[in-house]
Design a protein that fits this description.
Number of domains: 1
InterPro entries: MotA_ExbB_proton_chnl
Subcellular location: Cell membrane; Membrane
Largest sheet: none
Main location: membrane
Protein name: MotA/TolQ/ExbB proton channel domain-containing protein
Shape: rod-shaped
Number of helices: 8
Family: Belongs to the exbB/tolQ family.
Helix content: over 70%
Amino acid sequence: MLTNKRLYHIAIALVAAVMIWFVLILGASMSSGPGLKRFFEAFGGSFGGYVHAVIYMAFIFGVLEILEYQKFIKKQHEGFKLNLLPVQDQLVLSPDEVAKIKLNVIDLEKHGFSFLLTDFVKRACTQYRNNQSIGETLQVLTAQIDNSKTELEGKLEIARFLINAIASLGFIGTILHLAGSIGLFHLAKTEEGMPLITQSLNVSFDTTFIALFLGLILSYFYHRYLEDLDTFYSRTKSYIIDNLISRIYHPH
């Protein structure tokens, strides 16, 4: 199911790709020198560069999706500024103090300070209240963090698909232009024919090059997102274990 945000990204990518394509066509048609015209055509500056336009759309859409979730993860780091848990050395927490931490977190969420971190802290406090077991609380916290991370990774499965799809589109463009070049071979003996054939062959391999280049850039953005995701969840887990679970003392 497509969300409104995703549909918005698709619309932006479509408009941007079409604009880039027509700017390249305009640049190629207005170029006086063969070198500059060749440059624009390499990036799809011809009416036969529709595959380039599709590649640009896929690339822009993928970048927008990744940046959206990367923005979400960076926003979650603000939860650490709320000082939800005590960080003083040698401090221990009683069950009543754990319950008080949960109430403070609930109060913060009511005032609009809701983050993944607040949810994890609240769940850890609830789990400890239910069974009074530090070991089970740690186990449940680990499972919840892993599930949350897997869910966010899954939401960007589209990015992984687009990285592969862009490369595939490049090869499809190459095949289409090669087929077009073969169709022009009957003009090889004419003076006008050879430049047309050469141009078509050049564009065919340009498509693959552009696709692989943009795929590499998209892959970089995607792996930066995964790095930010790993950093956030690792920091979250350490923060809760060090400042909540490890401090709980239940007198017998």
